[in-house]
Each structure stands twice: as structure tokens, then as C-alpha cells.
Amino acid sequence: MKPTKSVGKMPAATFDIARKAVALTIAGSDPSGGAGLQADLKAFQQNGVYGMSVVTLLTVQNTVGVKRVEILPADLVEEQLACVLDDIPPLAIKTGALGSPAIVRAIAKRMKTYQGDLIVDPVLISKHGDLLGDHSMTDAYREHLFPIATLVTPNRYEAESILGRKLTDLDSFCQAASDLHQLGPKYVLIKAGLVDGVRQHILADGEDVTSIGVPDVPGNHGHGAGCSLSATIAARLTLSSPEHSHALRVRSAVEFAISAVHASIERSPPLGHGCRPVEHRVLHAGKSAGTAQ
Predict the structure, then answer these.
(1) Is the Cβ–Cβ distance between 42 and 69 less than 8 Å?
(2) DSSP per residue over 44-65, as a string?
(3) What average pLDDT score do residues 279-283 get?
(4) Does some domain include residue 139?
(5) Can you give the CATH number for the domain in which 183 is found?
(6) What per-residue confidence (pLDDT) applies to 9?
(7) Percentage of the chain lying above the pLDDT 70 cut
(8) Predicted model pTM
(9) 15 domain-assigned
(10) Long-range contact list for 237-241, CB < 8 A, 24+ apart?
(11) The domain containing residue 140 runs over which residues?
(12) Percent of the chain clearing pLDDT 90 (strictly above)
């Protein structure tokens, strides 16, 4: 008996794609996939955004720790950036680990004529307090990138390093966010960590300072959380409607990203022998009180 052949056409699939939603990450590589540009690209893709990357440094790392770092020459980073911007201009750019003051200066030079949103994650000190950049990097961020940033997203240790003082309670974090705003960025988001039993995020826009808290999730996890947060913010900004005010779009993107990253930490997969990565596959599952989605 001969098999029956189907000659009918398969029903056409339908897609809802934001074709102009393009974001770029300028960051280092994490071969384990939990952080760095790999995490950023996952956050972009999960939110329906076309992602591009400029590599600043290579690491040998996994969930247990970083074993080696090789920083790329500043001119190579600048050439990557120029090549991408000349061909596919992104609506939002986020920076991660930059590696050297020369790279910071090279990026800032190119960003002076950039018209989209620039999210600067000043990767200087890990969430555990490990030093990832010296005072020359802190000065480079303050002088070159903060004044042109849409949003800066330091963690508590980075905020302390930039301001030169310890932050101990919610009031001190709120004041710190206001002080960081004076350095030039339009918005500041401090990832304060655990404050009075709640994971706090402090958002400042020059007029208002708001704390956004989420429940703590105990356990050895969160590898890539900071990268995923800033990348998700960048992704959501590319998807936001220009009909809304910029302040509403930023706040909505921030609230969505905080919610999404919290969900990703709650669902951290049991991978690796150290600090487990966040679950990047739920970074689209955020919520926001705003309307700029």
C-alpha cells in the first residue's frame, strides 16, 4: 500500500515582532553563559529584541569564580562599536565590564553623537564586594560615561566606591542616589541589596527618589543578576512607546526588569558548583505599574 501524500498547504504561522527593537551590549564574555554579554543577549532575545554585542574583554570563569581576564585593546573595541553603529543603529545601548579607562574613553567618544538610550552598569565591584576595577576606572566612569548616560545602575559597593562613603540604611541609599544624579546621568538606579530584610532598588530622577523592594530569595544564586537587570531595562526601553514621556518609559522599564530578574532568581536552575545563574528564560515575565509596555 502506498502512503497517502498530503498536498495541502500548512497554515501560515503568525508572529508579533517589533522589527525596529534593536539593542547593543558593550561588555565582557562569560563562557559559562551566566553573566556578561551572554546574559545580555539572552535578556534581549527573551524580550523579543534583536541583540548585538561589542566585546571588551574575555574571561575564564564559571559559577565558582573568575580564573583569568584578558582585556582587549581599546582601538579594537572602538572599531567594533563604530562598525555596528554605522550599519545597525540600536535604540538602546548598555555597557557592562569595560576593563580599562582607555576603553571607557573610547566608548564615551563614540556616544557623544548617539541619540538613543545609554544604560551604564559600572562594573567595578561584584555583589560580594570583590574588586573588579581600580580608582582609575571609577574616575573614568565619573568623568566620561556618567555625564552622558540615560541611566546608571551601580550596586551598593560601586555606589560606595564612587561616592567615597559607606551606605548603611535606606535613607543613606536614597541620599546616595540623589548625589550620583548630580554627576550627570538622567536617572540613577542603585541595586542596594538586602536592606531591613528586603531587596531594595533605589531610583532617582533628580526630582523624586523611590525605593522598589522585592522579597529576598535565600540561597547561593544570582550569578548574572546585575547584567540581566540592566540588559532587560535596555530591552524594554527599545519596546516602549515614544508617545509616553521618557520618565514614564524609564520607570516602567526599571519596574519590569526588577520584577523579571526577581522571577529569574526564584527559578535559578541547579547548574554549576558555585553561585547558580539566574533563569534567563523567564526574563520576559516582568510586571510594571507603568503603561509604557
Answers:
(1) no
(2) HHHTT-EEEEEEEEEEEE-SS-
(3) 97
(4) yes
(5) 3.40.1190.20
(6) 67
(7) 90
(8) 0.93
(9) no
(10) 237/91, 237/92, 237/117, 237/119, 237/150, 238/18, 238/20, 238/21, 238/22, 238/23, 238/49, 238/90, 238/91, 238/92, 239/18, 239/21, 239/47, 239/48, 239/49, 239/293, 240/292, 240/293, 241/292
(11) 22-282
(12) 85
